[in-house]
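Moderator note: this is an archived Q&A kept for reference. The question asked for a predicted structure of one protein chain; the sequence and the answer are reproduced below.
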Amino acid sequence: SLLPVLNEMPANPRGLNTMGAGLTRLDSPIAKTGECVAIVKTLFLVRHGEAVHNILEREAKKRASVAAKQQGLSPAFCKEEAERVRKQVLQDEALHDAALSLDGKVMALNAQAQINQLL
């Protein structure tokens, strides 16, 4: 093997600065030292917030569930019908890249503020 065997990762590998909250930054490029080093990166996955289609899905499910219950259908069928109409809402091409709802915009701004605190 061309790489040295490490039994454990050093607490603070050369060239990495810990920024807190699991964030790291590579300060010295590998090419600069000519050495092979392990680079640890943190990937943040962020859900942006509620979109318009989420609201329409929720409303369609509620209407279908109420209608099915009024017809005296079983709870299992009510649930199936609610899921069917939820999926039907998503067939609208206008919703394929749906805009954020007002609440979704607030959620996104709050997420942005939290991310900025981490960085």
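Archived answer notes: Confidence is low (pLDDT under 50) at residues 1-6, 20-24.
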